[in-house]
Design goal:
Oligomer: single chain
Number of strands: 11
Order of helices and strands: EEEEEEEEEEE
Helix content: under 10%
Strand content: over 45%
Largest sheet: 7 strands, mixed
Length: 124
């Protein structure tokens, strides 16, 4: 089970830090990802971090602004979001992919577990 937190309302250029805590299972054998769903649009890949943090990958739209990290000791993955833009508005979902290889998947269909999401709203 995954639970996101940290969303909210922020002005353009502001920052937020999302957290995702896993319960019931340790995340050390999982690659962890964040996905974004804007109103009326499909869920899209934002960032992912591999098992043991050996690799991370970002969507082009967030490179240089967002940073994904993980702390397996507390079963938590983070998404630091800086320089937020109105197009970043939407629901952010945390997901877990049972994958111990040194790479990450970008497709939502490759992820096994999902949180319920946290709303991020960026005002212009």
């Amino acid at each position: 089970q995954l639970e996101e937190s940290g969303g909210g309302l922020v002005q353009t250029g502001g920052s937020l830090r999302l957290s995702c805590v896993a319960s019931r299972r340790a995340i050390n054998n999982f690659a962890m990802g964040w996905f974004h769903q804007a109103p009326g649009k499909e869920r899209e890949f934002v960032a992912a971090i591999a098992n043991r943090a050996v690799h991370s990958n970002y969507a082009d739209s967030v490179k240089g602004r967002f940073t994904i990290s993980r702390n397996d000791a507390v079963n938590t993955v983070y998404l630091q979001m800086n320089d937020l833009k109105p197009e970043d508005t939407g629901v952010y979902y945390c997901a877990a992919d049972y994958n111990t290889r040194p790479y990450v998947n970008r497709g939502p269909d490759r992820y096994d577990y999902w949180g319920r999401g946290t709303q991020v709203t960026v005002s212009s």
